[in-house]
Write a structure and sequence with these properties.
Order of helices and strands: HHHHHHHHHH
Largest sheet: none
Distance between the termini: 71 Å
Shape: globular
Structural class: mainly alpha
Radius of gyration: 20 Å
Helix content: over 70%
Length: 201
Amino acid sequence: MTVPSGRRERKKAATRQKIADTALRLFLERGYEAVGIRDVAAEADVAVTTVFSHFASKEALVFEQDEDFEQRLTQAVTGRAPHEPLIPALRREIQALVRHCTADSAAPIWRMIDESPALREYEDSMRLRHAESLAAAIAADPALSQTPTACRAIARFVIDAYSLAREAADPQTAVDEIFQMIEAAWAVTCHPGNATGTAGP
């Protein structure tokens, strides 16, 4: 029956969210380094094994929307309307992600991340994974017809656009500025003869 299965999934999602919310509260109250997985489990009233069944590491508790962000990026490619250009679709998604991550409520979280070498390292690895997933989605689209190198390069540019814009004084203006460059780079990969300096007299 589908109803019990749906109930189980809702309960599982609720438990995961409870753990993540509890962990973030403790990290912000006591400091990331001062809180252990056992502390999170006790405060959330779950077993340590339950925490690890939802999150692979302590760092993952901070980036609990990691998988959602990755899916949103790939769906910007796979879910765009027929004949819709790639770069505007990615630009809209990055703008939405930047708005989410630059809200006032997110500032203490990013300060915590910036102060923790372990969290910064985890964020770097997460960005690389997101870029690889995005590159794979671009490469799999037959309408785009790009080399693997071009797909990976554009994906890296898009992920870096998110990081750079998040740190900018005016994040949305930064997204616009960066995506003008990404659009130009994509145009060169689609029409290599248009690259500056390649055309003859």
